[in-house]
Amino acid sequence: MTLFDRLILLLTGLTAIYLIWRFYSRYSEEKARYDIYYMMGFAVLLVSGLLLIAFGWDILASPYVLTVATLIPLGVSMGLMHQFVPDYKKAYSWFSLVGLLAIAVTSIGGMSLKSIAVPVFHGIAGLIIFGLPVYKCVVTKDAPKGFGLVGIGGLLISVGGIALAFIVAGKQLLFFSADFVFAILAPLLLLMTLAFTWGFVKEIKAE
């Protein structure tokens, strides 16, 4: 990992701290559970970034890190489901729990099913993070336009997460070789976090 990567990851962490603060400020007033899920997702992103700065890309090979990092897309997607699709929040909460357990068992146990569990659950969470904000902005138009950037963040986290999962499993997704993924991963994480921050802050201010 280069010094540039570490600086980019530091900026990502600072951005995540700001977003966690915004969610906590809203939670202090409204006590909405979805803000807890948002904070969980970005707190894991913050810790993951700090671990990467300290130990480099090699730490991504740890099945424990892969399992914990799953809480990033699951936390954000659960927050969105609880906030915007409350009728399905219970079902999705169970789905997320099953997904987390499946990834934990297959990753820590070194099972070949890991190459299926990770892309499936990461992919579905990413589709929710991408689809819901776009739907709210474009179709129902009951969310500020800037909120659609959360969907862009979801797209970035899906592509990066799935490509990284394939590499950890010893495979390659399309042209996403290990060298290519590690070259773009730090900037991708920063762009993702900036997109999330812009979109969520727009939504918070619109209330």
Level of helix content? over 70%
Task: Report the sheet-strand fraction.
Answer: under 5%
Structural class: mainly alpha
Radius of gyration: 16 Å
The rough form would be described as globular
Low-pLDDT residue spans: none
Q: What's the order of the H and E elements? A: HHHHHHHH
The biggest beta sheet, please? none
Description:
- This protein has one domain (3-206).
- It has 207 residues and is an all-alpha fold.
- It has helices at residues 3-30, 33-55, 63-69, 71-84, 89-108, 114-139, 149-168, 178-206.
- Helix 2 packs antiparallel against helix 4 (71-84), helix 3 runs antiparallel to helix 5 and helix 5 (89-108) runs antiparallel to helix 6.
- It is 81% helix and 0% strand.
- The radius of gyration is 16 Å and the shape is globular.
Outline:
This protein has 207 residues and is mainly α. Helix content is 81%, strand content 0%. The model has no long low-confidence stretch (mean pLDDT 84).
SSE blueprint and pairings:
Layout: H1 3-30, H2 33-55, H3 63-69, H4 71-84, H5 89-108, H6 114-139, H7 149-168, H8 178-206
Helix pairs in contact: 1-2, 1-8, 2-4, 3-5, 4-5, 4-6, 5-6, 6-7, 7-8
